[in-house]
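User: My collaborator sent over this chain with a note saying "see what the structure looks like." That's all I know about it. Can you take a look?
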Amino acid sequence: MADLEGLKVAKDYHVETPFANQNGFYLKGANSLDWGMKKHMSNIFNPKSGNTVMFAFDHGYFMGSAAGLERLDLLIPQLAPYVDCFMGTRGAIRTCVAPELTKSVALRVTSGSSMLQDDLSHEVVAVDIEDAIRMNADCMAVQTFIGAKGQLSSIDNLSQVINAGMRYSIPTLGVCAVGKEMERTDRFFKLATRIIAEMGCQIVKTYDCENFEEVVAACPVPIVVAGGKKLPEKEALELAYDVIRKGAHGVDMGRNIFQSQYPIEMAKAVNKIVHEGMTAKEAWEFFEDETH
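Assistant: Without extra context I'll predict from the sequence alone. Here is the result:
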């Protein structure tokens, strides 16, 4: 075991200095990936902006018919022009996403307890690599619980998926889970995102926090920020703008799109921030114009 006595807490994150090992490919930490991995990453992250708009609709794997996701078959085709990546389970993707919608796919490959149980941290790898290949998934999403009761099995799940993905050139998206027992501080997210990246993930999904620019600087792969709970539309747009400004390579908006009164217009406004550089104020004005 490493000797932690006298360990210094890092202070200099060089947040103004671009990532150094990025010659030859536009995404952070992807220089040494093979062609297949880079192709999948290019499907997820727009080569011009370097960013992505993910639309998460994987909530049903533990929540059932989540409010706003009752009819995915009707919602997804309307949102498709304004998002880059669909994040869902194989069941929802196969049944509700038409194959002619040529968006990238982040396939949820872990599963566990339902919302009827207090502890959601004990998950298993529920989708094997062969099915991910059959679905032409651009990455495999693994819920990762750092600091929770199920941490060891969670890291084991992550390792299994990363190892399988490396064999077949499919990236892994490590989803930094939060729960009732886990703090939502920059200290926690610096720890959790770095652990997930060091395990070998090519993408990390996490949450906004204080000193978020330091979390980004310390993570050697692209970070995508989860929208989290439903916010008022103006606040959700401010969140998207703030994290992109601080170095995130995208947002994964689920509830802040599908639970909006105007989900299509909200997706359009988020897209404007992520890919066109709109400020939060400009995006809010755009949203208001679209909805009135």
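A starting point for your reply to your collaborator: The chain has twelve helices and ten strands.
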